[in-house]
Design a protein that fits this description.
Blueprint: E1 6-7, E2 32-39, E3 42-50, H1 61-65, E4 68-70, E5 73-77, E6 83-86, H2 88-101, H3 109-122, E7 134-143, E8 156-165, E9 173-177, H4 195-210, E10 215-219, E11 227-230, E12 234-239, E13 242-245, H5 256-267, E14 272-274, H6 279-287, E15 291-298, E16 302-311, E17 314-317, H7 323-336, E18 347-349, H8 352-355
Parallel strand pairs: 1-3, 9-10, 9-16, 13-14
Antiparallel strand pairs: 2-3, 2-8, 4-7, 5-6, 5-7, 6-18, 7-8, 10-11, 12-13, 12-15, 15-16, 16-17
Helix pairs in contact: 2-3, 5-7
Bound molecules: pyridoxal-5'-phosphate.
Length: about 350
């Protein structure tokens, strides 16, 4: 499928006003967006144009029934200043997995990847120069058909916007194992990156923060026993020399960082068990001195070390040093900027000359 993406460039770039050393997270957006509309059973008029407000009908179905999904990815800069993407086809696949669960149309994988490549090609000067920073990309789709009634919408928008993200100075995180609220139940939407999943997580997260924690550690919906994942991350535990991460069972988001980290840990000779793990087990390992490291994985921070986990009346504290977590984080960070061989073929260079014009 030959993809014609029409480009209209801004005549008034905001780039000159940006100080990359002080960009507030998630509040600064680049000059352009990719946008196309779904109607009459197909995606029409893919284009890149100056980012602007989008008129929305008050009856747009996403506002009422929540058909809205998104992805999160990052563009970095590699050798010779080439913009790079990390496993973008995995985001395209997950996007369509989310779309299918929410009764939304698929975006052809080629269109998704091409949209992301071309917007990165145009906005490459917005990739912050400091080590550890990146251009955060937010592809999303929502139902914009004006209609009051419960059924799948017939019209949608698929958009990609970009936001420069400065270096993340990742502090260790404190997790609160939640026993009252749940994130996802069997048969629900936990495996989809659906906007509503995040809406439902806001109150429990605020409550966890008020108790002195950074994020919720979600437990399963049936028994409040099995560890699922963290706010916007998957979770790994290092127990007596090997790693354990909850198996993805339909109610956990299949993180692309999770998958990459499993591969890297195995490359480094570690055994990685993907299996159900209870919070009681984690507490017991900690008390026995076997819980050596714990970290969350996700696109935003790559790897965030866990400092402590609160569960009911107990708080367990992780050992201060986490050498393997740091090593795997460095490996992943270095692959993303071509400072280390990309033996798994995860890095996709954006061929700017060829794609942008
Ligand atoms: C709920 C949830 N779990 C896990 C992740 C980690 O996924 P990834 O590594 O693909 O960013 C994310 C972030 O996308 C998330 O929102």
């Amino acid at each position: 499928m030959e993809m014609q993406i029409k480009t209209t460039r801004t005549t008034n770039s905001k780039l000159k006003d940006i100080d990359f050393s002080t960009i507030p997270l998630g509040r600064t957006f680049t000059d352009h967006m990719f946008i196309c509309e779904y109607e009459d059973g197909k995606w029409n008029n893919p284009r890149i144009e100056p980012l602007e407000l989008i008129p929305t009908h008050p009856a747009a179905m996403a506002l009422h029934y929540g058909q809205a999904i998104f992805e999160g990815m990052k563009a970095t800069v590699g050798n010779n200043n080439t913009p790079l993407l990390f496993r973008p086809e995995e985001n395209a696949k997950r996007f369509n997995h989310s779309a299918a669960r929410m009764g939304m149309p698929a975006v052809p994988e080629k269109l998704f990847v091409e949209a992301v490549k071309q917007i990165v090609g145009i906005e490459q000067a917005w990739i912050p120069p400091q080590e550890g920073s990146a251009l955060y990309l937010r592809p999303f789709m929502y139902a914009d058909e004006p209609f009051i009634g419960m059924r799948a919408a017939t019209s949608y928008k698929f958009i990609v916007i970009c936001s420069p993200a400065g270096p993340f100075f990742t502090k260790k995180i404190r997790l609160y194992a939640e026993t009252e609220y749940i994130r996802a139940a069997d048969g629900g939407t936990g495996e989809a990156k659906a906007a509503g999943n995040y809406a439902a997580a806001i109150l429990p997260t605020e409550k966890a923060k008020a108790k002195g924690y950074d994020q919720v550690l979600w437990l399963d919906a049936n028994e409040h026993k099995y560890v699922q994942e963290v706010g916007t991350m998957n979770i790994f535990f290092k127990v007596a020399g090997k790693f354990i991460t909850p198996s993805t069972n339909g109610s956990i988001l299949k993180g692309i960082t999770r998958d990459s980290v499993i591969t890297l840990l195995k490359d480094k000779g570690f055994e990685v068990e993907e299996r159900p793990i209870t919070i009681d087990e984690v507490i017991a390992y900690s008390k026995e001195g076997k819980l050596e490291e714990a970290f969350g994985t996700g696109t935003a921070v790559a790897i965030a070390m866990v400092e402590a986990i609160g569960y009911e009346d107990e708080v367990i504290t992780l050992p201060e040093t986490n050498p393997v977590s740091i090593d795997v984080k460095n490996t992943l960070d270095e692959i993303k900027v071509q400072k280390r061989d990309d033996i798994h073929g995860w890095i996709i260079p954006v061929d700017v000359e060829e794609k942008v014009g």
